[in-house]
Design goal:
Layout: E1 4-9, E2 15-20, E3 26-29, H1 36-52
Antiparallel strand pairs: 1-2, 2-3
Protein name: YegP family protein
Domain DUF1508: 10-57
Length: 60
């Protein structure tokens, strides 16, 4: 099963998104947005960024 973005309204009335893996586990979450449309745009921005993102290992 593919992962999915969920857009939801939090207790403060702001809109947020979370990315869930195919097994339902939350693997990422976004900041608070004023509108549902802005939260959806945040999802789309993450999709675009992740498509070309590299993996970088940071040393402590």
């Amino acid at each position: 099963m593919a992962g999915k973005f969920e857009v939801y309204e939090d207790k403060a009335g702001k809109f947020r998104f979370r990315l869930k893996a195919g097994n339902g586990e939350i693997v990422a979450s976004g900041e608070a947005y004023e509108t549902k449309a802005s939260a959806r745009a945040g999802c789309e921005a993450v999709q675009r960024a992740a498509e070309k993102a590299s993996i970088v290992e940071k040393e402590s």
